[in-house]
Each structure stands twice: as structure tokens, then as C-alpha cells.
Amino acid sequence: MEVHHHSHSPRRKWTHYFWEFLMLFLAVFCGFLAEYKLEHVIEQNRAKEYAASMVSDLSSDTTELNEYIRNATYAYANIDTLLKLLSEKDPKEIPSGKLYWYGLWGGYLRSFVSNDATLQQMKGSGSLRYFSNRLINNKVAQYDQLCRKMKSSEDDDIIVFTEVRKIRGQIFEFRYNAAANAIAQRNRVNFDQTRIDSFINVNPPLLTYDKSIFNQYVELVRSRFLERRVALADTLLSRAAVLLQDLKKEYHLK
Predict the structure, then answer these.
(1) Phi, psi at residue 172, to the nearest 5°?
(2) What span, in angstroms and rounded, lies between the C-alpha atoms of 3 and 41?
(3) Do 180 and 199 contact (CB within 8 A), yes or no?
(4) Are 68 and 239 in contact (CB under 8 A)?
(5) Average per-residue pLDDT in the chain?
(6) 144 exposed, middle or buried (CB, 10 Å; 0-12, 13-18, 19+)?
(7) In this predicted model, what pLDDT tens digit does every residue of 148-184 receive, in sequence order?
(8) Partners of 206 in beta bridges
(9) From CA 108, how far away is CA 134, in angstroms rounded?
(10) CA dist., res. 26 & res. 34, Å (int)
(11) pLDDT score of 21 more than 70
(12) Are 232 and 39 in contact (CB under 8 A)?
């Protein structure tokens, strides 16, 4: 009878299992760190891309707002002159050329539309989280809120604007009003006071001198609160400038 001897492998020490576990743990942990680092780099790159795009949008906004403020301030100054003229004299005592020119600005309309494509994309995709700086996140939210407030103000004004145009049509004859408007448009490109003076001195005829109609017109024009909208646009411009600088500094943009 043959006797078979079974070989027995030596029993491993507990330290051997410990080192195996440690090596496995380190491999998993290092993989996790690498993945986390990669994700962090990806998010940083995306944040910088969004920031650069938002800087471009804000730059366009500041250009638009500067023009908006300049034109609206000029319009308001002319409206203020009209109010002073009518508060001091009867319409019949005021040269009709002045009434046409200064009365034209009661129907001034210009809206500000923010270049917010990047912001809306980030809001829709939840990408605002890429802006890890809370101060920047707060300023973005505040700017967005202010833009919506301005749009709401302008939407409300459209109703009054329509009524202003209706009353204006009862006072001023279309062809002379169109001539005054053509001068205003030309002066936006190249301002020339002599154009305005020449038109005023023509003193074109009005359709009516009825004080009650003039009063309706003035009250509607006053209710447009153009001065308040200029102040709102000025605040929005300041916020845009600050946010621009913060984004450039945070993400090292030119």
C-alpha cells in the first residue's frame, strides 16, 4: 500500500493580509483622488469658460447701458423743459417749434435687453455651481434680479407709452413730428444744435391748443418715471462693472 503525503503550504502571517489590504486600499484611494482631481480640473476649466463668456456678455451690457443712460438722460432733460414751459405759460404763448421739439420726447422709447445667454444657460443646466466663490455667485444673482426688475419696469411703461402716443397724435401733426424725430436720430450719430434751432424757428402749426389735452399729455409723460429708470440703469451699470472685474480677477481673464 502506497502512502500519499499531502503537502501543506505554510500559514500566512496576519501582517501579510494587512499589507495586501493596505495596498488594495491605497490603490482604490489613489484612483479616487485621481478621479476627484480630474473632475475638479474639468469643473475649473468649465468655470473659466463660463466666466469668459459672461465677461463678454457683461461687456456688451455695459456698452448698451452707457448708451441707454446717455439717451434717456437727454430725453428726460427735454421732457423737463417741456414741463417747465407748460407750467409757466399757456400753450398759445409758447412758440410751436419749442412745443414740437420738447413734446417729441414724451414719446421716447428705448428698452434695455441684457445679453444674458450665458447666465440663462448656467441657470438652466445648474452650472452656476462651477462658480465656487460665493461672493461672485451672489453678485451674479443680484445682477440677474436687477435686470428682471428693469424689464418689469419697462413692460409696465409700454402701456403708458401707448397712451402717450395717442394723446400726442391729437396735438402734433405727423409730418412735423416726423421731421423733428429725423433730427433727433441724426443727432444721435452727430449732434448739431443748429439742426434743432432751425426746426424750432420754423414754428410749424399744432393741431390743437386745448389746455385739457396738453394737461393729459403732460400727466401721462410724467407717469413714465423716466428719471427713475435712468437711476435704475445707472445702478445696473455699476453692478455690471463690479461683476466684470471680479470675474476677470477670479479666473485670470483679460
Answers:
(1) -110, 135
(2) 67
(3) yes
(4) no
(5) 87
(6) middle
(7) 999 998 888 888 999 999 999 999 999 999 999 999 9
(8) 172
(9) 40
(10) 12
(11) no
(12) no
- CB-based contacts of 119, cutoff 8 Å, min separation 6: 54, 57, 140, 144
- pLDDT score at 126: 85
d(CA 232, CA 113) in angstroms, rounded, equals 14
Cβ proximity of 140 and 128 under 8 Å: yes
Domain map of the chain by residue range? 14-250
pLDDT of 97 above 90: yes
Beta bridge mates, 172: 206
Position 228 scores a pLDDT of 87
Judge contact between 173 and 204, C-beta under 8 A.
yes
The grid coordinates listed for 94 are: 409758447
Nearest to 139 by CA among 186, 89, 147: 147
* Grid-cell match 443727432, residue found: 187
pLDDT score for 94 = 96
The per-residue pLDDT for range 201-234, each reduced to its tens digit, is 999 999 999 999 999 999 999 988 888 889 999 9
pLDDT at 237: 97
The SS3 assignment for 117 reads helix
Which residue is listed with cell 465656487?
Answer: 132
Listed in sequence order, the residues at least 6 apart from 230 whose beta carbon sits closer than 8 Å to its beta carbon are 69, 72, 73, 76
SS3 235: helix
